[in-house]
Design goal:
The structure is a single chain. With 489 residues, the chain is α/β, with parallel strands linked by helices. The chain is 32% helix and 20% strand. It has helices at residues 18-33, 72-79, 87-106, 130-143, 198-205, 225-232, 284-298, 309-312, 317-320, 333-340, 344-363, 452-476, 481-488, and strands spanning 5-14, 40-43, 61-62, 111-112, 125-127, 148-151, 155-161, 167-173, 179-189, 213-214, 237-238, 244-250, 267-269, 303-308, 328-330, 398-410, 413-414, 421-423, 429-435. Helix 1 (18-33) packs parallel to helix 12 and helix 2 (72-79) packs antiparallel against helix 3 (87-106). The chain binds flavin-adenine dinucleotide. Flavin-adenine dinucleotide binds next to helix 1, strand 7, strand 16 and helix 12.
């Protein structure tokens, strides 16, 4: 491979999603404060029109309330979820999350706090315009900035090091197929996860994992390169490698993010027409990921969301179900079963028993139905009761969406310390190398929702500040003795 060096930049940022854009912007601002003239190169594998990776397609809900407080219950849940969770990482996120949201708002994106008319497990903020707004706001600022260069359709192939092992740039390949080296004083890995590579997903998650397709097109650029490049240099890993964050989508749809979130307001059945989960066990956004994972892992990736016309007419039901296709609809449960390829007698029997258990729940004094709160309206007497929002499936026409499991992001990634520095398995810092976002692995078990962009932006800002501090410290360092001796001769 031919690789020619070009003028060194201060900071080389690999990736152009929330992590990369935030790191670049924060670096420029911090360097300005110190009276420097910073130079930054941002690599993006995608063409400009598709820049932004997962972030571009993200809803960007954030676990921060109106007062800028990160929900401490959510942090507690994460910290206690698994012995390998880095509790300090999340405690720092808890302290700095509010400041992160304020920083985003100061850079032209707005976080709104309007709630849908359905119960949620926490008070979230939501970015107005989603992740596209974040990408456009930060990229526009950076494009106008002298000293900052975007290189689209350019992919990083490997990191380079100096004689002492300090990371000092990367070999990259442009769309003409030629490679070159970009020299840099520090590098931030912001390449997202490996969810876009079916090879990597199969390798880490296991057989059948390639059934789990990326939920949006932007994920196809995320092929685990940051993880590969860093581990080639001895970086440690963390996070659960055999687990992805997933969601249920309409199996028939090719629309990006054709999410199905309405299951708490109906039932979900497997290929035999039987229910297999308490659909009321969690609010719509909390239920979705573990349910989607279980559908893929335990139900041969086959399940169908069944609901009646009363549910369909709930205000906001279209917000919960984002498919571009109409559900299957029929006047009887048996006819609906024919449409979805389930034994009609089995589905009719299952729905009849479910409806009888709703009535039994009402006789035992279960609360009344209220989709906006955790209402406690339960079935009674089933092997798997539905513990909230239990209403009979009785109002024709009846509807069904076939469900598939789609990936949102991978869990496993590079290990970093609290200063966003990439570390070895022994805890030694790899000098000059920082990472933020999904390329860093932090999750085990269940991801609680609304924390991925928050942690991405928080630690990308830290990465930029730390990179600048490292560069400044190196400038202050006396030259090595050998170099001084040579000069004196
Ligand atoms: C549909 C959807 C909804 C979501 N909703 C939420 C939500 O509500 N709240 C939340 O917190 N999170 C949400 N997420 C998750 C969140 O959006 C992501 O986890 C986060 O945006 C990741 O940011 P990132 O910068 O780490 O990665 P990305 O935004 O994926 O950016 C990675 C970038 O790296 C580039 N790249 C990769 N490899 C190379 C290479 N070798 N050379 C050059 N460039 C490379 C890619 O092209 C891409 O631009 C959602 C995700 C999806 C898909």
């Amino acid at each position: 491979m031919s690789a020619s060096a070009v003028e060194p930049v201060d900071l080389l940022v690999i990736g152009c999603g929330a992590a990369g854009l935030t790191a670049a912007q924060q670096y420029v601002e911090a360097a300005d404060r110190e009276g420097r003239a910073p130079t930054v190169a941002i690599l993006e594998r995608a063409p400009r029109e598709e820049r932004g990776g997962a972030t571009r397609w993200s809803w960007v809900n954030v676990t921060v309330d109106r007062e800028g407080v990160v929900d401490p219950h959510v942090i507690d849940r994460v910290v206690h979820a698994h012995p390998d969770v880095d509790a300090d990482y999340f405690r720092l996120l808890e302290r700095r999350g509010g400041e992160t949201v304020a920083w985003l708002e100061a850079h032209g994106v707005r976080i709104a706090h309007e709630r849908p008319p359905f119960a949620m497990s926490s008070e979230y903020g939501a970015m107005v315009g989603g992740g596209r707004a974040l990408v456009d706001a930060l990229a526009t600022l950076l494009e106008e900035r002298p000293g900052v260069a975007f290189r689209y359709e350019t992919e990083a192939l490997r990191l380079t090091t100096d004689d002492e092992g300090r990371i000092d740039g990367a070999v990259v390949r442009g769309s003409d197929g030629r490679s070159s080296r970009i020299a840099a004083r520090a590098v931030v890995l912001a390449t997202g996860g490996f969810e876009g590579s079916l090879e990597a997903v199969t390798r880490y998650v296991g057989p059948r994992a390639a059934q789990i397709r990326p939920v949006v097109p932007g994920l196809r650029f995320n092929t685990g390169d940051g993880l590969r490049m860093a581990t080639e240099l001895g970086a440690a890993t963390s996070g659960q490698f055999d687990r992805l964050h997933v969601q249920l989508v309409d199996a028939r749809s090719s629309k990006p993010d054709a999410g199905l979130f309405g299951i708490p307001y109906g039932v979900i059945v497997d290929g035999t027409g039987r229910r297999f989960v308490d659909e009321g066990s969690a609010t719509f956004e909390a239920l979705n990921a573990p349910l989607a994972w279980s559908v893929w892992r335990d139900r041969a990736a086959t399940a169908t969301f069944v609901f009646d016309d009363a549910a369909r007419r709930l205000p906001g039901f279209g917000f919960l179900n984002q498919s571009d296709l109409e559900p299957y609809s029929a006047d009887t449960i048996e006819e609906l079963a024919e449409l979805i390829g389930v034994d009609p007698a089995a589905l009719a029997d299952e729905i009849a028993r479910f409806n009888a258990a709703v009535a039994a729940g009402e006789r035992t004094g279960a609360s009344s139905f209220d989709p906006a709160v955790i209402d406690g309206k339960s079935t009674h007497g089933l092997a798997i009761d539905k513990t909230n929002w239990a209403m009979p499936i009785a109002v024709a026409p009846f509807h069904a969406y076939p469900c598939a499991t789609a990936s949102t992001f991978s869990y496993g990634g590079v290990r970093t310390d609290l200063r966003a520095r990439v570390v070895s398995p022994g805890g030694t810092v790899l000098p000059g190398l920082y990472a933020a976002g999904v390329v860093t692995g932090v999750w085990y078990g269940e991801y609680p929702g609304a924390m991925s962009v928050l942690r991405t932006v928080t630690y990308a800002r830290i990465a930029a500040e730390e990179a600048l501090a490292e560069i400044a410290a190196r400038e202050r360092e006396p030259e090595p003795v050998a170099a001084r001796t040579a000069l004196a001769v």
